[in-house]
């Protein structure tokens, strides 16, 4: 097996910094790739949490003026991850969320902040760090989208490039005047085959246009984004580049998400002692001030509260939840109107609906271990990770038939396969309510429910095979560039 070196570029990496599924992928994939002969190092910004948690740092390079202020490139490690960290305090030394202010507004200099990250990625790709010269630069989402662009416009020999889309909704759109500040040729911003995007520029579009290979996080989503609706303005470009576009399902870290060893749940359990899930359910009901009842199906939700995630549809389905004798425990934050409406529903239905606004990693584990079913009613979902965790913990997924939800959950109507959950289409409140009723009937048929749980627990949700697909992609790319 020929060794391969890959530089991954990501704006967040679990367990150091996380706002969404991108961080989980960026944190788990490098470790899984080791078994496939791939040495991956990850470049990320030096947010305050990164500088606090990084160990054994070594200064690789220092600049007196890097995009408007002094900067350093550091190497370090954390939790088995080998990292390069771009330490530019005037760009990254800010509290809270990596992308937005405390008021939830994008940092006004986000274009410069993430252009700086992509610029150093391209430089590493061309040999800035002699001890690690990558065969491939792998850019994740719009924040890294300019890495393939810099490598392209610099000219000369370069590594192969891969661009991964985690969510088409986030495209990194800016005014074309930014080109001067980020050191790209002005004509690139006027070129439809470069950065130009409806009169401005898009970092994601640049990566999709100029990378050698494009991936996204499920086969169904790879098809959906080639449509005008699913592509969100970039469907035509993706159709034109369909020959280099592929969908590779995400996995989850099965060491972090393991109910037999999980330190965050009340009672640990495995496939042979699912009876202990009832004890976790009782603790979860207590946490959310729900009535203590093992006979009431408990629905869990761990989600950003947004239109994309379909959480308005679940609100419309609350009468069905109540009529069916179900309970709801929701953890999430996002759209202020949805937050207010869920909190109002909880006040109106004490003991039946519990809501916690925010995100709590420990509570997320308990919801997986204690809820009977996990609801993911997304209007579009590139892959989704919560339903994979649910399979691992014996919570039955109730999901819409979109993206990775379609690819990872098997409905009972799919003949010849062991069902693992319930799927609904179209993505409407009525269709969701129908799935809730189906799930409620199955819950009260204990042999059927146990079969669903065991099928889910038997599903491989790890990175083992998925990482092998990435390794094969890298090797194919390297071979094609040498041919």
Write up this protein:
- Strand 14, helix 14 and strand 15 (353-357) form a beta-alpha-beta unit.
- The chain contains 20 helices and 18 strands.
- The strands form 3 sheets. It has a 9-stranded mixed beta sheet with strand order 3-4-5-2-1-6-7-11-12, with helices on both faces. A 6-stranded parallel beta sheet has the order 15-14-13-16-17-18, with helices on both faces. The protein has a 3-stranded antiparallel beta sheet with strand order 8-10-9.
- It starts with a strand and ends with a helix.
- The mean pLDDT is 95.
- It has helices spanning 21-33, 48-53, 89-92, 110-125, 146-154, 178-182, 203-210, 219-224, 228-231, 235-240, 277-287, 311-316, 318-323, 336-348, 361-370, 386-393, 403-408, 429-443, 446-457, 464-482; strands spanning 4-9, 38-45, 55-63, 71-78, 81-87, 136-140, 160-165, 173-174, 196-197, 200-202, 213-216, 245-247, 298-305, 327-334, 353-357, 373-376, 396-400, 422-424.
- The chain is globular.
- The protein is an alpha/beta fold.
- Helix 5 (146-154) crosses helix 7 (203-210) and helix 11 (277-287) packs across helix 15 (361-370).
- It has 2 domains: 4-251 and 464-482, Glycogen Phosphorylase B (Rossmann fold, 3-Layer(aba) Sandwich); 274-457, 3-Layer(aba) Sandwich (Rossmann fold).
- Residues 288-438 form the Glycosyl transferase family domain.
- ADP-alpha-D-glucose binds at residue 18.
């Amino acid at each position: 097996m020929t060794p391969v070196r890959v530089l991954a570029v990501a704006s967040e990496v679990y367990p150091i910094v996380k706002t969404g599924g991108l961080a989980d992928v960026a944190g788990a994939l490098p470790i899984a790739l080791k078994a496939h002969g791939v040495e991956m190092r990850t470049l990320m910004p030096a947010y305050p949490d990164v500088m606090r948690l990084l160990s054994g740092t070594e200064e690789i390079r220092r600049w007196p003026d890097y995009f408007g202020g002094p900067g350093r490139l550091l190497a370090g490690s954390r939790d088995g991850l080998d990292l390069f960290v771009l330490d530019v305090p005037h760009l990254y030394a800010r509290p809270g969320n990596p992308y937005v202010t405390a008021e939830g507004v994008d940092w006004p200099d986000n274009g410069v902040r993430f252009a700086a990250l992509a610029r150093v990625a391209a430089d590493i790709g061309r040999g800035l760090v002699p001890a690690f010269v990558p065969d491939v630069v792998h850019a994740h989402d719009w924040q890294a989208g300019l890495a393939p662009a810099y490598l392209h416009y610099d000219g000369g020999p370069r590594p192969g490039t891969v661009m991964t889309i985690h969510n088409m909704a986030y495209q990194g759109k800016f005014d074309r005047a930014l080109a001067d500040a980020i050191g790209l040729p002005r004509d690139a911003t006027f070129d439809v085959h470069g950065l130009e995007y409806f009169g401005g520029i898009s970092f994601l579009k640049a990566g999709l246009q100029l990378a050698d290979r494009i991936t996204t996080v499920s086969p169904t989503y790879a098809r959906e984004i080639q449509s005008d609706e699913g592509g969100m303005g970039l469907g035509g470009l993706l159709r034109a580049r369909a020959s280099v576009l592929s969908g590779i399902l995400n996995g989850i870290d099965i060491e972090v998400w393991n109910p037999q060893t999980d330190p965050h749940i009340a009672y640990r359990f495995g496939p042979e002692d699912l009876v202990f899930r009832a004890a976790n359910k009782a603790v979860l009901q207590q946490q959310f001030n729900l009535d203590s009842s093992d006979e009431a199906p408990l629905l869990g939700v761990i989600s950003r509260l947004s239109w994309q995630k379909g959480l308005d549809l679940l609100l419309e389905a609350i009468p069905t939840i109540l009529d069916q004798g179900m309970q709801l425990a929701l953890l999430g934050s996002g759209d202020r109107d949805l937050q207010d409406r869920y909190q109002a529903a909880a006040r109106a239905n004490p003991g039946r609906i519990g809501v916690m606004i925010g995100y709590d990693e420990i509570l997320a584990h308990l919801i997986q271990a204690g809820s009977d079913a996990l609801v993911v009613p997304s209007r579009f979902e590139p892959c989704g990770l919560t339903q994979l965790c649910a399979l691992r913990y014996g919570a039955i997924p109730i999901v819409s038939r979109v993206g990775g939800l379609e690819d990872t959950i098997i409905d009972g109507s799919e003949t010849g396969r062991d069902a693992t959950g319930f799927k609904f289409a179209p993505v409407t409140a009525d269709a969701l309510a129908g799935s809730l009723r189906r799930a409620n009937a199955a819950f009260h048929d204990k042999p059927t429910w146990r079969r669903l749980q065991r099928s889910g627990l038997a599903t491989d949700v790890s990175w083992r095979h998925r990482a092998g697909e990435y390794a094969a992609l890298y090797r194919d790319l390297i071979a094609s560039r040498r041919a």
